[in-house]
Amino acid sequence: MTPDKTIDAFLSRYDEEVFINALKLREVIIKTLPDVTEQLDIPAKMIAYCYGQKYAELICVIIPSKKGLKLGFNRGTELPDPNGLLKGTGKISRYVEINSEKEIKSAALKKLLSHALKAYKQRMAINK
């Protein structure tokens, strides 16, 4: 995992609400995705969560911006989303807009993260 100081320095460029929500979201991701690797991508302005170095091994990304905070999902188009959290029109990825601590701690978001982990494990089993 990336040292907290590096993440804090990166996130400190954003307003306080984005900074605080990003740290809380980070905690939820790390608790929900066991042994996930956290990678700070400063040029892309995001924090990636994956189980390897290949794009196929990417689970999700935290995307802070001046407008707010998003949680992006690799292969989000393939995830079940009964609560309608996922947004976007990309062919592969989708994202969830994060506006509050309530959304971060919601069962629906945790379930979406769990679905993303399950989908990742299925992809890796097929590719062996």
Give an overview in words.
- With 128 residues, the protein is an alpha+beta fold.
- The protein has one domain: Aspartate Aminotransferase, domain 1, CATH 3.90.1150.
- It contains four helices and five strands; from the N terminus they run H-H-E-E-E-E-E-H-H.
- A five-stranded antiparallel beta sheet has the order 1-2-3-4-5.
- The mean pLDDT is 92.
Explain briefly what this protein structure is.
The protein is α+β, with helices and mostly antiparallel strands. Helices cover 38% and strands 21% of the residues.
CATH topological fold name: Aspartate Aminotransferase, domain 1
The count of strands amounts to: 5
Number of domains: 1
What form results from the Cα inertia axes? globular
Residue ranges: pLDDT <50 for 5 or more in a row?
none
Overall average residue pLDDT: 92
Beta-strand proportion: 15-25%
What is the spatial order of strands in the main beta sheet? 1-2-3-4-5
The H/E string reads HHEEEEEHH
Gross CATH architecture = Alpha-Beta Complex
Fraction of residues in helix: 25-40%
Distinct helical segment count? 4
As a whole number of angstroms, the C-alpha radius of gyration is: 14 Å
